[in-house]
Design brief:
The complex is a heterodimer of chains A (572) and B (292). Chain A is 38% helix and 25% strand. Chain A has 572 residues and is an alpha/beta fold. Chain A has 2 domains: 2-251, Rossmann fold (3-Layer(aba) Sandwich), CATH 3.40.50.300; 327-569, 3-Layer(aba) Sandwich (Rossmann fold), CATH 3.40.50.300. A 6-stranded mixed beta sheet of chain A has the order 6-7-8-3-9-10, with helices on both faces. A 6-stranded mixed beta sheet of chain A has the order 15-16-17-13-18-19, sandwiched between helices. In chain A, strands 2-1-4-5 form a 4-stranded antiparallel beta sheet, with helices on one face. In chain A, strand 1 (5-18) and strand 2 form a beta hairpin. The longest helix of chain A is centred in the N-terminal third of the chain and has 18 residues, at 181-198. With 292 residues, chain B is mainly alpha-helical. Chain B has a single domain (78-289), classed as MetI-like (MetI-like fold, Orthogonal Bundle), CATH 1.10.3720.10. Chain B is built from 10 helices and no strands. Classes of the chains: A alpha/beta (572), B mainly alpha (292). Chains A and B meet through helix 12, strand 15, helix 17, helix 19 and helix 20 of A and helix 1, helix 7 and helix 8 of B.
Chain lengths: 572, 292
């Protein structure tokens, strides 16, 4: 065993120094990988997993801003302290890598053949290398440039390139995170087979426990620069011993997750505080809350009596019924084509083909599809950001003011130099509910919403850049619901977040939907998240809705081939 | 769904990032040096003339005294006026004129660029074609023509430069506005209901201003040079008022037996241009680092 150990990391500590502060990204980490084995390094952002991935390739900045102590040895060669002389012998020969974004790692000015021939020596050998990663018509691919290939193909080429020098160690840093789910499954199986064939050791860095289980023999779970648990994949996933690993496991969403309960492992105290919040909501104390009151009133009337809200909404029963029976969002035969000029010729991309659907009052509908399916364009049209070529979108509601959007990149969707209070106030000012309110009233409204999304008064004066990713997403949600819209449009709101944060954001959307009486359109590539949020799931591909299925028993009920492929791609 | 992730989140999420302790301590040595240099130059130009014992336009001693003469550190010129006094006064005049020219150019250009970039469509096309009209001719020639047409004075030279300077800002700002307007946060604000000038003013313009400020600070040096060039060829301040370009030009005649009359004003022009360029660069680095 000892002689086949390829990588040994012992007591590795990596510190970054910047502007007077020193931060340890990795603390006293000890790992080893034997030839032919795959070690999964799993953790959330900031856990130090990528720093280890970089350290074992010797690509930690050498300008003195980073400092590594401890030991890294590859095939018996000691490589700490990290110097370019020592590593130039190792990097690209004994250690190679596959990164998240192949477009950045592949040289855009070279054909695939030229890159590959450097290692294989001949075109025939290059064809063989591509065939090993299951690329058909490898001869043609050799003549192409990276931009002419799809994302999945590029990543296969990356794998072929990484394995061509017959390395001892392959470092794969989130190799499938940027890919569509169905492509991810294919690329993972290609990677799995190729590394088995090559017999090298693999360090597999990922945030996704499902991917890690699929790929790895052993798993090391990292948190705040420390390895909190190591063991065989079955053991770590099956019977996690550490608290943090258990929490991570509980945050994983699959097609079997219980939809009736919040995901994750809520503590009793949290549930109690939630109850308080709902009680507060049931007793709106002034006219400001009339919009909310209307939602609550409707909710109470048609789902069973709870605490009376009163006639704060000022709506007659007739209007209430009308609103409940009319859909909140009607998408009617929407068609959209993008045209671009390519070498003087007009090229049309028909992204939406006569799409029609409705979202009922208080209903949540998920649009699931891969990139290019048209789902995001549909959301942008529903939000009024883009206009359809033909067809119409109609949104209305008594409790809401049209549609509001939660964007994928919450940080980028918040104006960086405006405070949270200013951002929320601005939204209130531009609604009919908010017209004529005083600053104090708007502030109270903002504060109540911030509490509802799990933030408090302290963020009111903060600018978005001072908040964490999860907090930014919450502020973005708060802005969208501070005056409840009739339809909340969610554009992949969790795909940029860590699992535990993503999980709580999903819970939050569910909670808001139920407590504010809003309908939800949830656009995602993740079938499991869609199932959790939505009552109905619409499967989209090629600009069309190919299937509509009830969310509860999605895995059984889905019938189309494409839908089944998406189901299979969700790693259990 | 009776579950608030509130407390769990407080544990999982990192606190708000700490702000820099102070703007000054965040600066590097070179950046601090450049700011000190700008402050010193501005101070000399502002209060220097008042502190000088002589008048800048009345002969104060013997003619053509070399530098380091008693009572006249930098010597006297051909009429016996004190060189040091005239230089400081000239710097004040140049600096003031350059600041005014840069401010007005930046203001006009920003206004036109913002309107063109934000409104788009035919307004954009019309404004940008109008701007191109000014950019189509050699800047110096137009400035000379305008200054000469209005008459020989500092004011007419300034007007001439403004006319050729603002189009650069209009182009720059239009591009920046178009870039920023396409960013997600502007779209998000639009979805939230913010429209029109309020959207522009609150969500777009603040991202454009740092670029304008940096460009303007880099431009002050160039404007000083251009103004000096105009007065060098006789289109600026009339004699005997102290103006650096004019002084250099007049001094050329005596270059062989009294070099300082031409060289010292030229050095002063170079100093102003260099100091502002250097500071503008530092400003750019600082603003980029703070991520605006």
């Amino acid at each position: 065993m000892a002689e086949s150990t390829v990588l040994t990391v012992s007591d590795l500590t990596v510190t970054y120094r910047g502007r007077g502060r020193t931060v340890a990204a990795v603390k006293d980490v000890t790992l080893s990988i034997a030839a032919g084995r795959c070690l999964g390094l799993v953790g959330e952002s900031g856990s130090g997993k990528s720093t280890i991935g970089a350290a074992v390739q010797g690509i930690i900045p050498a300008d003195g801003s980073a400092h590594a102590t401890g030991g890294i040895s590859i095939a018996g060669r000691d490589l700490v302290p990290i110097t370019d002389q020592a590593w130039s012998q190792v990097r690209g020969r004994d250690v190679t890598s596959v990164f998240q974004d192949p477009m950045r790692s592949l040289d855009p000015t070279m054909t695939i053949g030229r890159m590959l021939n450097r290692y294989t020596g001949s075109a025939e050998a290059s064809v063989a290398a591509l065939e090993r990663v299951q690329i058909r018509r490898a001869g043609d691919v050799l003549k192409k440039y990276p931009h002419q290939l799809s994302g999945g193909m590029r990543q296969r080429v990356m794998i072929a390139l990484a394995l061509a020098p017959q390395p001892l160690l392959l470092v794969a840093d989130e190799p499938t995170t940027a890919l569509d789910v169905s492509v991810q499954a294919e690329v993972l199986s290609v990677l799995r087979e190729s590394i088995e064939g090559a017999g090298c050791a693999v360090l597999f860095v990922t945030h996704d426990l499902g991917v890690a289980r699929h790929m790895c023999d052993e798993i090391a779970v990292m948190k705040d620069g420390v390895v909190v648990e190591t063991g065989s994949a079955e053991q770590v996933i099956g019977e996690p011993a550490d608290d943090y690993t258990q929490r991570l496991m509980a945050s994983r969403i699959t097609l079997a997750t219980d939809r009736a309960r919040p995901v994750g492992a809520p503590e009793p105290a949290v549930v109690a505080s939630m109850q308080d919040m709902l009680d507060d909501l049931g007793r709106p104390d002034d006219a400001v809350a009339s919009a909310w009151a209307a939602g609550e009133l409707l909710w109470n009337r048609f789902t069973g009596p709870t605490a009376a809200v009163g006639a704060a909404s000022g709506l007659s029963d007739v209007r209430l019924v009308e609103h409940v029976t009319r859909p909140s969002l009607t998408v009617n035969e929407v068609d959209k084509t993008y045209t671009a000029r390519v070498r003087g010729r007009k090229v049309g991309n028909h992204v939406l083909k006569n799409v029609s659907f409705e979202i009922g009052y208080r209903e949540a509908v998920a649009l699931v599809g891969e990139s290019g399916s048209g789902k995001s364009t549909l959301l942008r049209i529903a939000a009024g950001i883009e206009t359809p070529d033909s067809g119409s979108v109609d949104s209305q509601g008594v409790a809401g003011e049209g549609t509001q959007v939660i964007f994928q990149d919450a940080g980028a969707s918040l104006t960086p130099w405006r405070t949270v209070e200013e951002l929320l106030r601005e939204r209130i000012e531009h609604t009919t509910t908010g017209k004529g309110l005083s600053r104090a009233e708007m502030r109270a409204m903002a504060l109540r919403t911030l509490e509802l999304v799990g933030l408090d008064e302290s963020v009111l004066g903060a600018r978005p850049t001072q908040l964490s990713g999860g907090q930014q997403q919450r502020v973005a949600i708060a802005r969208a619901v501070v005056v409840p819209p009739s339809v909340l449009l969610c554009d992949e709101p969790t795909s940029a977040l860590d699992v535990s944060v993503a999980c709580s954001v999903l819970n939050l959307i569910n909670l808001l939907r139920h407590s504010l009486g809003i309908s939800v359109m949830f656009v995602t590539h993740d079938l499991a998240a869609a199932r959790l949020i939505a009552d109905r799931v619409l499967v989209m591909t090629g600009g069309e809705i190919v299937e509509t299925v009830g969310a509860a028993d999605l895995a059984q009920d889905i019938t189309t081939d494409y839908g089944r492929r998406l189901v299979d791609a969700v790693l259990a | 769904m009776l579950y608030s992730p509130k407390r769990t989140l407080k544990r999982l999420e990192r606190p708000a990032s700490d702000r820099p302790e102070g703007a000054w301590s965040a600066l590097g040595f070179g950046e601090k040096l450049s700011l000190v240099a700008v402050a010193a130059t501005v101070l000399i130009a502002l209060v220097g003339p008042a502190l000088m014992p002589y008048s800048a336009i009345i002969p104060a001693g013997e003619q053509l005294l070399p530098p380091l003469s008693p009572g006249h550190v930098l010597g006297t010129d051909v009429l016996g006026m004190d060189m040091a006094t005239r230089l400081v006064a000239g710097m004040q005049r140049s600096l003031f004129a350059a600041l005014v020219v840069t401010l007005i150019s930046a203001a006009i250009g920003t206004l036109i660029g913002v309107v063109a970039g934000f409104r788009g469509g035919w307004i954009d096309t019309a404004l940008m074609r109008f701007t191109d009209l000014f950019l189509a001719f050699p800047a110096m020639i137009i400035a000379m023509a305008i200054a000469a047409a209005i008459g020989q004075s500092l004011g007419s030279a300034m007007i001439g430069i403004v006319v050729v300077w603002w189009p650069l800002y209009a182009r720059l700002v239009r591009g920046e506005v178009r870039r920023v307007a396409a960013l997600p946060h502007v779209q998000a604000a639009r979805v939230a209901g913010v429209t029109g000038w309020r959207l522009l003013w609150r969500h777009v313009v603040p991202a454009v201003m740092p670029t304008v400020v940096v460009t303007a600070s880099l431009d002050i040096g160039a404007v000083v040079m251009t103004l000096a060039a105009l007065s060098f060829i006789g289109l600026g301040t009339p004699a005997p008022a102290p103006e650096l370009g004019r002084m250099a030009s007049d001094g050329m005649k005596y270059f062989l037996n009294a070099w300082w009359i031409a060289v010292l004003p030229s050095l002063a022009i170079g100093l102003l241009a260099f100091v502002f360029n250097y500071a503008g660069d530092a400003l750019r680095v600082v603003l980029r680092r703070t991520g605006v």
